Amino acid sequence: MEEEHDNTRPVSIPHDLESEILTRLPVKSLTRFRSVSTRWNSTIAHPSFSKSHSFRSAAVAGDGAPITLILTFINRFNSERTIFSVDIPSDRTGIVPNPTHILTIPGFAHPFVSQPLNGLICFNLGSMCVCNPSTRKFVKLPWTQPEISSPSQASTHHRTNAFGFDPVSNAHKVLDTWITCLENEMIMEHRIFTIGSCSNEWRRITNGPPYFPFNEGVCINGQIYFRAYPSMLVFEKPVLVVFNVNNEQFRFIEMHDDAILNSEETVLMDHDGRLVIVDHQCVASGEDNVLVMWMLMDEEDGKWVKKRVELPAIYGEMNDRRRYKFAGTTFSGEMIFTEKRLVDPFTVLFYDIKRNEVKKVEICGLTDFEFKFGHLVMNVTGVNEHVESIISLFQ
Fold first, then answer.
1. A Pfam family in this protein (predicted)?
2. CA gyration radius for the chain?
3. Do residue 23 and residue 151 come from a single domain?
4. Which of 333, 363, 184 has its CA nearest to residue 272?
5. Cβ distance 84 to 75 under 8 Å?
6. 67 - beta bridge partners?
7. Enclosing H/E stretch for 56
8. How far apart are CA 176 and CA 246, in angstroms?
9. Which of 9, 190, 268, 323 has its CA 20 to 30 A from that of 43?
10. Is the pLDDT of residue 245 over 80?
11. Gap between the Cα atoms of 166 and 352, Å rounded
12. What is the full DSSP assignment across 242-284?
């Protein structure tokens, strides 16, 4: 006699397998599934789950695959930040409709916007702000101001910011620096905020050397890089500042003379996991249609390798300074150039350094959204490839 089985009894799935299945789902589904049970909510909210989900999302975005771009704009009149997302086909060409409006965040007019790190973006809105476009959540950090008051009319305050990720502790950190410039010295006030930590306060760090930074920054393998003047003396050459996000230590690296150019003319970017300074406007070479790169090969010895790439004349469009700006990168190392202002269609150029080729996409429909004072007052602050993230901004 055959034994009968009760097919109505629910099958128990091992928790590890259950978690593995969940990491393959989009953020929109995960957000809904958090209400299914306490167990699922706890699983999805755990930092190890968000790390696994981010890793899988990034792995899907490979070379030649369709990508999602995050576009950020600032309203020149009321300082609102508006964020859009748009899906770009794998061939990086053609007309792309139907951009998605993610968020509009009120704030102060400051140009700082970070590169996306594991799906998170940082802004300076007067107070610092970190946003997760996937969950459409953002958090404004406590207000900061210099503790040192200006002792004289000749002294001034300057503020600079950076956003980094420490792969060792799996922590995202915001670096906020106030610089008080006196007649003969600079006084630095560095503060660190760890996103999602138990403490909702900034921490002071006191080991930073004096410097006056360029308005730039890129985080690679747990280190934030930016160029800066090491003192107030105009004849001193800029240096490369390296901030280790894990131990929160600063150090300087000397740069090749040709690479010491204004950040409006040369840019920092991540290329195959190494820092690269790119002169994409032929400033250093003095030649038309030539791109020059300096790659940092050895940080300890300060060794740089210079590479010169001749661009076909047809690629000169991306170096039209009046129309286009360097706006960001893709994970595969493509440089992204975009219109400086919001127009329709909105042109995005992808320059693949390895293949030495440019592809063009036209995004239609961005001007269909309502903007206070109209779309003509919207300036581009950043366009980067984006991966979905379930990372929580709150403890």
1. F-box
2. 23
3. no
4. 333
5. no
6. 88
7. helix 47-60
8. 16
9. 9
10. yes
11. 28
12. EEETTTTEEEEE---GGG---TTTEEEEEETTEEEEEE-SSTT
- pLDDT confidence tier of residue 134, bands split at 50, 70 and 90: very high
Task: Identify the residue whose tokens are 């980094």.
Answer: 164
**Mean pLDDT for the stretch of residues 6-17:** 69
Q: Which of 148, 241, 234, 226 is nearest to 187 (CA)?
A: 148
With tokens 């063009």, the residue in question is 360
The answer to whether position 9 is within a domain reads no
Higher pLDDT, residue 184 or 62: 184
**Which of 197, 163, 166 lies closest to 177, judged by CA?**
163
Q: Structure pTM? A: 0.88
User: Are both 79 and 39 inside the same structural domain?
Assistant: no
Section 272-290 average pLDDT:
76
Quickly state the pLDDT bin for 283 (edges 50, 70, 90): low
The distance from CA 326 to its chain's CA centroid, rounded to whole angstroms, is 13
Q: Classify 12 as helix, strand or coil.
A: coil
Q: Which pLDDT value is given to residue 153?
A: 57
Q: What is the largest CA-CA distance in the chain?
A: 99
109 in Cβ contact with 126 (< 8 Å): no
Q: Alpha-carbon distance 262 to 227, whole Å?
A: 9
> Encoding tokens for residue 209?
């050397």
The residue behind tokens 């930092």 is 47
User: Which pLDDT value is given to residue 203?
Assistant: 94
Q: What is the pLDDT of residue 168?
A: 93
Question: What is the 8-class DSSP label of residue 80?
Answer: -
Cβ atoms 91, 359 nearer than 8 A: yes
Together in a domain, 32 and 143: no
Structure tokens at 88: 């770009």
Structural domain for 24, as ranges: 15-45
Query: What does the pLDDT look like over 74-97, one tens digit per residue?
Result: 887 778 888 999 999 888 888 998
What does the alpha-carbon distance between residue 319 and residue 282 come to, in Å, rounded to a whole number?
A: 9
- Tokens representing 263 are 């950040």
Same domain (yes/no): 287, 356:
yes
